[in-house]
Structures are given as structure tokens and as C-alpha cells.
Amino acid sequence: MTRPTPPIEFGGDSGDSSKGTITARWQYAPAPRDAKALLGDLAAICPTSTAHLELAEHARDWWPLAMRWALQSQVPQLPVAVVSPRDTAEVQRVVRACAAHDVPVTVTAGRSGVSGASVPMFGGVVLDMTAMAGVVSVDRASGVVEVLAGTFGPDLEHELERHRLTVGHFPQSFDISTVGGWIACLGAGQFSTRYGKIDEMVVGLEVVLADGSVIRTGGAPAAAHGPDVSSMFIGSEGTLGVVTRAWLRAHDVAPVRRKAAYFFPSFADGVKAMREAIRAHATPAVLRLYDAVEAQRSHGGDGTNSTLIVLDDGEHEIVDATLAVVDRCARTHGAVTAPEERVDHWLAHRNDTSGLQALTKKGFVIDTMEVAAPWSKLGDVYTAVLAATRAVEGARNVSAHVSHSYLDGACIYFTFVGQISSREINDSTTAEHHALYVAMWNAAQRAAMSAGGNLAHHHGVGLNRGRFMREAMGESFNVLVALKHALDPNDLFNPGKLGLPTARGEVAFP
Question: What is the pLDDT of residue 454?
Fold first, then answer.
């Protein structure tokens, strides 16, 4: 079974050894009233660990600030214990035990998120789902797979290969992320223009609620018996319940794959071509446009043009027609053919984040922000975010690409880099790093929303974006608050996330 790998060694190149003591940066989590009794109750249910390094590893995800703090052998917050339930009944018992002790539960698995959703903000218990892994059943005729939530992406696809099926969900975190994580953060794979986001793949869910009861949602296509209950949990980031298994739509493995690449005179020209192709219902699995900065850095651009890479899977008649429409739209807006090897290069390097990790270790402020906007506002969002982020003192670079497309709009994915006065990693420079990180996020996120973009497309909210939730949702945020209170009145699940109010204490970010 695939297992997660740590994003950065504790201590890194300049700090303490990862074998030493790792401390919590925010040391305010209240201890359980009777920790000994809690640990005894948990150990009687399933494997339970209080080993220091295991607590530390389960106290973080790929959130760039947590990666920075790891270089100082720090995590945001430490849990009391990590539990590893092996089936739904054990999850129920863990939830009931934690409720009885009034101890919060943070559900994790691969911990590949980049927004701090896996950080146990108020300590408590981390519920590690990776022991609940595997494909339970496959309905080949209907193309539906039943899979446990702790199943990693490669393990799911490997099992489906035997049935000549694929779910088609390939996020950048594919190797170290799980089905439950995809659902919790409403993820999008790199082939989403053909196969959709994870919400379009979910047929039904099994969920453990805060009172320990179990519900099953969905189960058949196109139901019309009230609001879709599955949707309440997709994207809820572990705040409303514990997803323990899912039924997902799967596709027959495509017999044909074709690729193409283009250079455009400008980013705006490329966006116009993409919009026209999508509006003509040409939806290749991959349709990604890189601006001049990113094109020159990684995709064969000359510093002035933008690069579009195209890949499609399917029946050859459909693939041929799709690529023909994309080609027509591209040439209408001044594109010239680029070497097909640009697509091969992207395929070979698409999941490589070593460059981001290297810059983090060198002390740079770096992160990515993905938002979606209508086609009519996409250009405004691009221009506004670049201008606002570059205006922040300490900002060094910001660039973008369009990564996922829909009939009415697309996702635009920004990367920004900042530099503080010193590359030394100590308490003083970490405070400076933190301040620049927050300033760049505030500028970029608010510029995106003001120009017509949304809050997030597939990275979720977690801790990092919580402060923007009410701005983004307006009065509808009150509905989410009411839903949380109805399903989890004692704030058991992942308190402090999604910007939801909590009585457990102050949220120590930003």
C-alpha cells in the first residue's frame, strides 16, 4: 500500500535533527480532563500511538508555513494521540469516546493538503484513516467502484486496471493523497476537463456523524428526493463528519491518447482560444495554458509568448474531433504549433514539487493560490492578482496558468514568491517570513475576489483561508455555520477550520 512521505525533514538543512524533540508552535491546546482514561479508552478500540515523532508527523500537512516551521523542528500544534481505526465500527467507537471526553477529532490520511486542514488546532486526537484502505467492490456494468476512504490514488487505479476502468482523478498529490482527502477538499485532478472534479465522481458516501451514528448517502444516478446529502460532506474538510467509504463513478480505459501544443502571442489570446473550444464542447482531458513567465521557465516559451498543452483520452472519433476544434480555435487566435514534446515534458514532471521545497529551505516565501472565475472575468482576475501581489514589499515573482476549464469559466492557478531580508532560519526571520506570507496572501486573495474570482478551486480552505470565508460567501456563510451546529453541536470535528466559529479557543492564524 502506498504510504505518505513527509514534505520536509524536521530541522531541514539548518535546524535540529529530526530525531530530537519537536515542539508545538502554538502551545495553548488544553489537555484532556483525564488523559489517562482517554488513552485507555482509545487503546481498547484500535491501534493508538503517543510516540513523539508520530504525533509530530500527524500534526501538519504540506501547508508552506508548516513546512517552514518544520525547519525549526516545530509543528503548528501537537495532538494527544494518533488512532488508526481499521473499520467503520472502530471509527464510531473512537468518535463516541472522544465525544465522551470532549476531545476534538481531526481526520487525516495522506496529509497532502496545502492549507493546514490537517493541523489539529486544539490538540485532541488525530484519526488516521490510512488503515481503512482498499477497493471493496466493482460494478463493472455500471462503472461504479466501492472504495474505503484511506485508499491512496495509485492503489485505487492499480486495482481498477484489472477491470479496465479508471476513475480519472489525478491530482498533483496523486501518489500521497487518498480518496477521503479528495472528497474532503473537493479536489480536482489534472484530467478534470474530461472527467470532472471529485464531486462529479461521487455516487454515494458512508459517513460517521458526531454522535457516532452512520449514514449512507446517494447510491443511484440523478436522484430527486430533496437536496443532495452527499454534497454536504464533499468539501467539508472533516468538519461535519468522517467519510469512511465512497462509491465513485469509473470510466472504461480509453483506447486512444493524442497530444498537441501551441505557442500564443499572449496569455489573453490563449484564454480566448480555450474559451471558444470549451464553449464548442471540445473538452480534452488536459487543457493548460501557461503565461509568459511559466512558459519560459518550464514549457518552451521565449519569454513573450504563452504555451498551451493539450491531451485527450477516449474513442478515436471523439478525440480526433476534439483536437480538431481546439486546433481551429487556437489558430484563430494566432497560435503556432509547438513541439508535442512539451506535453511529454509536462507529463514527466507534473507532480514534481521539489523546486518549491528547495525554495522553502532557502528561506523564500512561496505558495500557490488557485481560484476560478467566469470567462468574462478571467482576464481581470489575472491582471488584478499580478498587480496586487507584485505591489507587496518583498514580493519577487508571481505567475499563473489556467489549469481546469468549464463551460462558464476556468481555474487560474497562481504561484508567488517573496524574499525576506535574511535567509537565516530563526525566530526573528520566521516572524518576518510569516508577515510577508500573510501580506502576499491578503493581497492576492482579495484582488482575486474583487475582480470576480471565487475563494478556492481545489486546494480547499483549511486554516490558511479561513479568514476569507465570510467575505467570499456573504450571508450564505450563516447556512454553513447552522449546518455545522446541527450536525456537530459540540464542535467535535476539526474545530478552527473553514473559518467556522469555535468555542474551543482563539484560532492562532493569521
Answer: 98
Give dist(CA 465, CA 509) in Å, integer. 10
Q: pTM to 2 decimals?
A: 0.95
Query: Which of 294, 377, 297, 282 is closest to 330 using CA atoms?
Result: 282
Closest by Cα among 324, 320, 294 to 307: 294
> pLDDT tens, 309-330?
999 999 999 999 999 999 999 9
Return the biggest CA–CA distance within the chain. Answer: 70
CA distance 288 to 271: 10
d(CA 3, CA 358): 22
Helices 267-279 and 375-390, packing angle to 10 deg = 150
The CA distance from 85 to 90, in Å, is 5
If phi over 0 gives left and psi between -120 and 50 gives alpha, with beta otherwise, what is residue 301? beta
**Strand 74-75 to 23-24 pairing:** parallel
Instruction: Show the low-confidence residues of the chain (pLDDT under 50).
Output: 14-18
Q: pLDDT value at position 15?
A: 43
Count CB atoms within 10 A of the CB of residue 212.
Answer: 16
Contact indicator for 401, 369 with CB cutoff of 8 Å: no
User: Do residues 247 and 219 make contact, with C-beta atoms less than 8 angstroms apart?
Assistant: yes
Strand 286-290: give its sheet, edge to edge: 336-337, 256-264, 306-314, 286-290, 395-405, 409-418, 365-374
Q: What is the pLDDT of residues 328-384, one digit of tens each?
A: 999 999 999 999 999 999 999 998 887 877 888 888 999 999 999 999 999 999 999
Q: What count of Cα atoms within 13 Å lies in the side-chain half-sphere of residue 82?
A: 21
d(CA 93, CA 204): 23
Helix (H, G, I), strand (E, B) or coil at 49: strand
**Residue 359: predicted pLDDT:** 86
Residue 87 CB neighbour total at 10 angstroms = 13
End-to-end Cα spacing for the chain: 36
Do residues 132 and 85 lie in contact, with contact meaning Cβ atoms separated by under 8 Å?
yes
CB 126 within 8 Å of CB 120? yes
DSSP 8-state assignment for residue 493: B
CA distances from 474 to 457, 469, 494 (A): 18, 8, 22
Cα(474)–Cα(455) distance, rounded to whole angstroms?
12
Spatial neighbors of 500 by CB under 8 A, at least 6 apart, are 239, 466, 469, 480, 481, 484
Planar angle of CA 441, 497, 130, nearest 5 degrees: 110
